[in-house]
Amino acid sequence: MLAKRIIPCLDIKNGRTVKGINFENIRDAGDPIELASFYASQGADELVFLDIIATFENRKTLANLVKKVAHEINIPFIVGGGISSIEDVSILLNAGADKISINSYAVRNPIQIEKLAGFFGSQCIVVAIDTKYIDDDWFVYLNGGRIRLPLKAFDWAKQAESAGAGEILLTSMNHDGTKKGFAMDITMQLSKNLSIPVIASGGGGCMKDFLDVFEKAEADAALAASIFHYKEIEIPALKKYLNENNVETRL
Amino acid sequence: MNKIIIVDYGMGNLRSVQKKFERIGISALISDNLNLIKQANKIVLPGVGHFANGVKNLKERGIWDILNQKVLIEKTPIIGICLGMQLMAKSSEEGDIEGLGWIDSQVVRFKVSDKIKYKIPHIGWNNLKIKKVNTFFNNIEPESLFYFVHSYHFVCNNLGDELTSTEYDYTFTSSILKENILGVQFHPEKSHDQGEILLKNFANH
To answer: What separation in angstroms does the CA of A225 have from each of A61, A230, B29, B73, B167?
Structure first.
């Protein structure tokens, strides 16, 4: 049986891991390679590296980091942040990333999802959606939450799916950093209507939150950052807890 | 002297496979050099991507005929990973083109009964049921999970070629073994420590 996945996310700035609350107040959280090795040994099922500045100079730093990660880590990993061309994708995949995550680039050029999927295969194209509940619905936001689009998260996810996305990484900006639980309604709406896996992100604060997002919202994977970085939840204990509650994980 | 060649035919990144061999103290060379491939005494055929492109690339680079010679005539041990395994089939629904055909089999797209419950690609960690005695799974805990990411899977016409099966809505062939030919649908190089043990068992086989 396919196991539910636990995915730590490492936000990367100038080659270091950082973490903010509600996309702001960024603070240092350690060396990415060390953290990644630690998480792999702890039983993380996959890792996400998100470049949060993504300037031109940073792209090289990121590609070098990806190379090191591919060498040192024996679990799959996703790389994202500021990807804005097929060339960017190609560089990161060639450096050893298993999947790349695209956000604004996909929203602004949905046709590119199709091109990327055709070229590299759907399995390595993750479409990341940052969403916020406002005016009675979940809307898509860009640029770390600074730009609101007149586009509903659900509609965009469906569109991305039919264009060839392999997975959806859904982040609720209302929940991110709050540790009050994942956004259950929108996660469930996507999981129950998409034929590709949904990774839930934002708000996981205690083990019960993870159980709920798998059991009730039917997410395929759950992502979190600070609670893992600051060891508020240890992955082996979390996975044991999930298994004891009949959510199969890889122990 | 163990000469392991990881065949480079332009289908995906091969360095992570090489590095995982290195981590377990085994050197493996990535190459598209026909002479080096001819001299190999173990071959790794990895790959991610489209079946038809894989066939086309192997032929364009002149690797196709050498692989046939090495594997069918010289009986050199080979491991195909993901697309590399699928290329060993006679045909695939992913592209109207013949595969290497070493195993009497076809590659088909997952036909799940419930597209919401069983999402495609089949992405993530799943278990294996070992179907016949072999040494490749020595020292690997029977309940270990391996990492999969694929939308197409192998169908053996001769069940004797099946090494492991995996459940995803229904049972499919997740690895094959026929004489010197080993093929795995999952990614040992991404399957944490147990994946490295499998690579080690292949190298020491």
So the answer is: 21, 9, 37, 52, 31
CATH number of B4-204: 3.40.50.880
Other C-beta atoms within 10 Å of A52: how many? 18
Compute the distance between CA of residue B182 and CA of residue B178 in angstroms, rounded to an integer: 7
Name the token pair of A227. 């609670």
Give the pairing type, strands A24-30 and A16-21.
Answer: antiparallel
In a mutagenesis test of the A interface, which of B119, B174, B193 is the best target, namely the one with the most A β-carbons within 10 Å? B119
ipTM of the modeled complex: 0.89
**Domain-by-domain residue ranges, chain B?**
4-204
Please name the residue ranges forming H helices in chain A. Answer: 32-42, 56-72, 86-95, 104-108, 110-120, 153-163, 184-191, 207-215, 226-229, 235-244
Q: Is A111 on the interface with B (CB under 8 A)?
A: no
Rounded to an integer, what distance in angstroms lies between the CA atom of residue A212 and that of residue A57?
41
Cβ within 8 Å of B, A 188-207: 191-197
Q: What structural domains and CATH numbers belong to chain A?
A: 5-244 (3.20.20.70)
How does pLDDT run across B118-171, given as a tens digit for each residue? 999 999 999 999 999 999 999 999 889 999 999 999 999 999 999 999 999 999
Inter-residue contact B189 to B199 (CB < 8 Å): yes
